[in-house]
């Protein structure tokens, strides 16, 4: 989790320089190699191999390994005295430690009569912004536990009707955290606010159907995906609106059809490979070049149903949430690397995100699950060795509907449509609501 390359005192080796560590390292590598070489009951469709099968390191590599301390105390002490030693820490260390030691506790958030939270982001260390199916943009203060409503931006054209007010499905903050992009009052339009004041800047008009996802390419450029099977490239305004306090109306720089795709469901920007990945409801993943905004390839996903969410690891790996499992794809070939089956029957994947090498999965059964990509298994508890780590959401609130009487006979659990970590990784905001479309209700909780 933490690495510190210790500098030896003159004429001595550092305290972590123990030759037995090399033997332990080789034994672990040998055991892992044997495990990987064992033939599974069902062979994987795509297998990655290491560059070399040799167990021997060069003397220089051995010296660096023995000089590197993985003790978190050494990392903290080196940082405190500002020692000239190369050091790094895994950003997911605190999250992983708290999860494996059962330290997270939920504080339910009361949302009144709102309907289903679809998206959320941390604005600061004390504020979370989220959007709902009932077209409300809200800011929750985790200290005072207060809720503030942000006015949604009106369209320029005459109001098209309630069928175009289907909720705020996505919101994203740009890398410098100066702009917030989300849906407008008309779900087919884009709205951009300035941060931290949340003053309205502009409304983007282009799509003919609901905007379901969006992603920032940098501090200026933004891409949206819609049910009209199109992707739009936008440039955020550089300054305040010309007609302040009223917002401006802008058009996209480019509008592209998603060839071979029907209804764009999810978007993500792959920084490592400078490409945009789009997921469509007909079971395809599409890749666009971020520099030219041209579609480069499409691939039909194997037997995937109910594609909902898409996430990218820093290395470029894609995670796709399906009806009964999560699919990991190699970004270079779009081939399946791993199919992560759910540990619970009927567990639809509703949200996914990467934090380091840990994949967080929000489900339709009110469970938050955690998968260790490097270990190739779900995160295991350090307290209960036979159990995997899960966070179970509280019931939330559901409003009975005459057409949904059949659902009332089943024990209700909320679906986790969205989750997000704060910068420290020690707090998780989870939210959602009933999974069946006819049911009206909400759920939100703060884990800390």
Automatic annotation (TrEMBL):
Q: In which pathway does it act?
A: Protein modification; protein ubiquitination
Instruction: State if Cytoplasm is listed as a keyword.
Output: yes
Instruction: Kindly list any coiled-coil regions of this protein.
Output: none
Q: Which SUPFAM superfamilies match?
A: WD40 repeat-like
Region described as Disordered: spans on this chain: 32-62
Query: Subcellular location, in the record's words?
Result: Cytoplasm; Nucleus
* Superkingdom assignment: Eukaryota
GO CC list: Cul4-RING E3 ubiquitin ligase complex; cytoplasm; nucleus
Q: Which Pfam families match?
A: Beta-prop_DCAF12
Keyword terms, alphabetized: Cytoplasm, Nucleus, Repeat, Ubl conjugation pathway, WD repeat
User: Is Nucleus given among the entry's keywords?
Assistant: yes
DDB1- and CUL4-associated factor 12 beta-propeller domain ranges (all copies): 102-447
Q: Which family does it belong to?
A: Belongs to the WD repeat DCAF12 family.
Tell me which PANTHER family the record gives: DDB1- AND CUL4-ASSOCIATED FACTOR 12, DDB1- AND CUL4-ASSOCIATED FACTOR 12-RELATED
Full protein name: DDB1- and CUL4-associated factor 12 beta-propeller domain-containing protein
């Amino acid at each position: 989790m933490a690495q510190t390359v210790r500098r030896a005192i003159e004429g001595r080796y550092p305290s972590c320089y123990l030759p037995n560590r090399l033997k332990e390292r080789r034994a672990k590598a040998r055991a892992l190699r044997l495990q990987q070489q064992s033939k599974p009951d069902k062979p994987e469709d795509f297998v990655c191999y290491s560059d070399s099968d040799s167990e021997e390191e060069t003397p220089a590599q051995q010296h660096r390994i023995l000089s590197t301390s993985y003790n978190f105390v050494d990392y903290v002490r080196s940082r405190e005295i500002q020692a000239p030693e190369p050091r790094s820490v895994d950003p997911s260390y605190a999250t992983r430690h708290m999860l494996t030691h059962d330290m997270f506790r939920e504080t339910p958030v009361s949302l009144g009569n709102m309907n289903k939270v679809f998206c959320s982001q941390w604005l600061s260390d004390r504020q979370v912004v989220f959007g709902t199916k009932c077209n409300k943009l809200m800011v929750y203060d985790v200290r005072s536990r207060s809720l503030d409503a942000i006015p949604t931006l009106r369209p320029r054209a005459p109001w098209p009707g309630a069928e175009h007010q289907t909720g705020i499905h996505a919101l994203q903050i740009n890398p410098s955290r100066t702009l917030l992009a989300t849906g407008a009052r008309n779900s087919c339009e884009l709205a951009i606010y300035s941060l931290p004041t949340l003053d309205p800047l502009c409304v983007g008009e282009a799509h003919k159907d609901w905007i379901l996802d969006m992603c920032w390419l940098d501090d200026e450029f933004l891409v949206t995906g819609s049910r009209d099977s199109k992707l739009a490239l936008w440039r955020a305004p550089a300054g305040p609106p010309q007609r302040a306090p009223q917002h401006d109306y802008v058009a996209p720089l480019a509008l592209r059809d998603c060839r071979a795709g029907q209804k764009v469901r999810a978007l993500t920007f792959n920084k490592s490979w400078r490409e945009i990945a789009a997921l469509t409801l007909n079971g395809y993943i599409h890749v666009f070049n971020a520099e030219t905004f041209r579609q480069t390839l499409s691939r039909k996903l194997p037997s995937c149903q109910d594609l909902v969410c898409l996430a990218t690891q820093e290395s470029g790996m894609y995670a796709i949430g399906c009806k009964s499992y999560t699919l990991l794809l190699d970004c270079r070939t779009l081939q399946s690397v791993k199919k992560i089956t759910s540990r619970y029957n009927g567990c639809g994947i509703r949200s996914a995100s990467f934090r380091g090498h840990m994949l967080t999965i929000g489900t339709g059964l009110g469970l938050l699950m955690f998968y260790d990509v490097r270990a190739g298994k779900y995160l295991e508890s350090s307290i209960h060795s036979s159990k995997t780590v899960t966070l179970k959401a509280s019931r939330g609130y559901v409003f009975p509907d005459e057409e949904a009487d059949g659902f009332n006979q089943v024990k209700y659990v909320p679906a986790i449509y969205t989750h997000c970590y704060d910068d420290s990784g020690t707090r998780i905001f989870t939210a959602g609501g009933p999974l069946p479309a006819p049911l009206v209700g909400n759920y939100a909780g703060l884990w800390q």
